[in-house]
Amino acid sequence: MNSIRETAAFEFNSSEDFVVATSFEVGIAEDAFFHYLEPNEVSQYWLQLTRNDPSPILDFLLIVKYHRNKNEKWVPLKFDHFILRFLFSSKTFEILVFHEQGVRRIQIRELLIYILKKISEKLEKAGFKGLIISNMRVV
């Protein structure tokens, strides 16, 4: 499994005062299973999609793992599991996010903005146009 750890820049539903770090596990749907991607595979897979005609639907499993620093050790907290469904059309795409499991420490809107920012950065780095968010609705 991959693990990309970075300091959280999200608001958490917590009354305690401590720093939380996040790491992400990303899996892509293949038949009835999710194949976990290494960090370099995520970028390569997305770029491959932009070069070819994308599938109309693409599903990802995103596990957001939370850790707090306690006595110089990172202690795991409960994780969140999200299913992300990308629905592609000719020049646009829609993302549906389903919270499957966990305490939902991260707000879905913040998670979406973070994901779209990372996708846009990777596209621009590869010489493509960045993403433009035309509409976002979280219910």
Euclidean distance between termini CA atoms: 31 Å
Count of structural domains: 1
Can you count the helices?
Answer: 2
Q: Count all strands and give the number.
A: 7
Shape: globular
- Portion of residues within helices: 10-25%
Order of helices and strands: EEEHEEEEH
Structure classification: alpha+beta
What are the defining features of this structure?
139 residues, alpha+beta, 7-stranded antiparallel β-sheet, 2 helices, 40% strand, globular
Give a structural overview.
The structure is a single chain. With 139 residues, the chain is of the alpha+beta class. The chain has one domain. The protein is 22% helix and 40% strand. The chain has two helices and seven strands; from the N terminus they run E-E-E-H-E-E-E-E-H. Strands 1, 2, 3, 4, 5, 6 and 7 form a seven-stranded antiparallel sheet that branches. It is globular and about 50 Å long. It starts with a strand and ends in a 14-residue tail after the last helix. 9% of the residues are buried.
Summarize the structure.
The chain has helices at residues 39-51, 108-125; strands spanning 4-7, 20-30, 33-37, 57-70, 73-76, 80-88, 93-101. By secondary structure, the chain is of the alpha+beta class. 9% of the residues are buried.
Question: What is this structure's SSE topology?
Answer:
Layout: E1 4-7, E2 20-30, E3 33-37, H1 39-51, E4 57-70, E5 73-76, E6 80-88, E7 93-101, H2 108-125
Antiparallel strand pairs: 1-2, 2-3, 2-4, 4-5, 4-6, 6-7
